[in-house]
Amino acid sequence: MPDANHIAALVETLPPTDAELKTPTPKGETPREGKFTGPAPDVADQLCRNILDTGPDGLNALLDMVRDPAEPAYASYKPEYLVHCLTLFAGRPGLEKERRMLAPAMLRRVQNEDASLYLRLFLIRELQWIGDASAVPVLAGLLTNEELADAAAATVVSIGTDAAPHIRRQLPDAKGRVRLVLLQALGQLRDPEARDLLRAALKDEEPEVRIAAAWGLARLGDDGSIQAILRAADGAKGWERMRQTGSALLLAEQLSAHGNKDQATAIYIHLRDTRTEPHEAHIRDAARRALGVRVA
Fold it and tell me: How confident is the model over 121-152, as pLDDT tens digits?
């Protein structure tokens, strides 16, 4: 069983920064304080294999060494850097065994509420590289945590597989920032089963939520939401009017791309005729171009 000292010794084989070496800056060049030159690829690969050969105990010892730079116990960037190297290494094709060892170790730490927020966020982001469908239920359980929701949503979206049902189940009870994050995730996933949830969110009291809902419906190319999106855009002011109008344009593009030319044309005509303010000239021009009308 590897001890922490063995793992620490492996970590210290990473090359030092220029600042640590106190390398003088060549004349005429900008000072490079703190510049880090990573190890040669073959050296990095061997280091990763050495760490993985220590098994789960070694991986846990390495994760114990990752610290928030703001913590008094912080000593070095190297453990965090090495974890990222391991992620990239295990993410290569043909290294399923390595991923099956590394990803669960990360997930266990992510689920541990006693682990630092910094470490949990770091590992959630790393799982975008090596997480698979088995990681989605664990990460979905973090979607209601305001501190972790953004990172967890980004990772389940990047994994994709089976993510949408978990997000949909969380949405009805979600509030505030979490609700917005979940709606944006459903839009990114183009989840057709989310239509009703997105349509309901178009009437939310928060403008950011309404914007996310319209964007998600537009990405779906949902022809049943044309009038709702146009009403939302027409009734909005300022920044929200701009964003909702952008979603209307996106919806028209999606409809046109899928052969619904008449519906797309109706949206362009509406925007051409209703965006009459001087600062909306670019919308009128975009609509005219889409309609095949030459813009002077």
Answer: 999 999 999 999 999 999 999 999 999 999 99
What are the angstrom distances between the C-alpha of 208 and each of 205, 214, 223? 9, 10, 22
Place of tokens 């294999």: 49
Token readout for 19 is 């600042």
Residues whose CB is less than 8 angstroms from the CB of residue 189 and which lie 6 or more positions away in sequence, other chains included: 157, 160, 163, 164, 167
- Let me know if 24 is exposed, middle or buried by CB neighbors in 10 A (0-12, 13-18, 19+): exposed
CB 70 within 8 A of CB 14: no
For residue 6, is it within any domain? Answer: yes
- What pTM, to 2 d.p., does this model score? 0.86
| 85 and 199 fall within a common domain | no
**Is 58 within a domain?**
yes
With respect to residue 195, please indicate whether it lies within any of the assigned structural domains: yes
Average pLDDT over residues 200-229: 96
Range of the domain at 226: 190-296
Rounded Cα–Cα distance for residues 60 and 64 (Å): 6
Task: Please report how many Cα atoms fall inside a 13 Å half-sphere around the Cα of residue 81, on the Cβ side.
Answer: 20
State the DSSP string of 7-66.
HHHHHTTSPPPHHHHTPPPPTTSPP-TT---PPPHHHHHHHHHHHHHTHHHHHHHHHHH-
CA atoms of 222 and 142, how far apart (whole Å) = 29
